[in-house]
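Now for one record:
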Amino acid sequence: MSIIIGLTGQSGAGKSTVCRVFKREGFAVIDCDKVAAEVTKAGSDCNRELSASFPECFDESFALDRAKMAQIVFSDSESLWLLERIEFKYITAEIEKKVEKLSKKADYIVLDAPTLFEAGIDSSCDIIAAVVSDEDIRLRRITERDSVSEELAKKRFSSQHDEEFFRERCGLIIENNGTFADVECSAEEVARKIKGMFGNACKDIKNS
């Protein structure tokens, strides 16, 4: 068994940077966005089920038009809820498989999951860390990184929890409003703190 760390936060907060630091510190990382991409490949069972509710977002090979899906779900909360209800069961099942495989060799496994709470994966975590950042900074990062308009980025933000939500529910907070070096330093400190909190538990697991 491994120590499971949930890593979450809003779009553009800087979770990818924090994950790179965690990897350097010896943590295994599961990118849940990549898992979502895996389960929504053309022809997948997930896509076939989604197509019944969102037929306009799929072609005859059950390939997902992500841009069209984003326009729908980021403008309508009920559509977003339906998408997540279907998609999350496939994503969580795949994450469980990856955790089981990694747990044979990794003491610490990070679940990089922007929708950690929505998917119910938080219940599987030993501790949860959130990366937070001011909205104007996140907006700049998202428009530059994803080449989307400010309007679409703000729609994405409106479908997510606010910063206070994460501060109330997460045991560790990494603030990312400064330089790249600043957030790397903060992430290293959190990684060391996690090792300090659970180091003995990892030893006990290895010796059992």
About this structure: The CA atoms of residues 52 and 159 lie 23 Å apart. The first strand starts at residue 3 and ends at 9. The chain is about 55% helix and 10% strand.
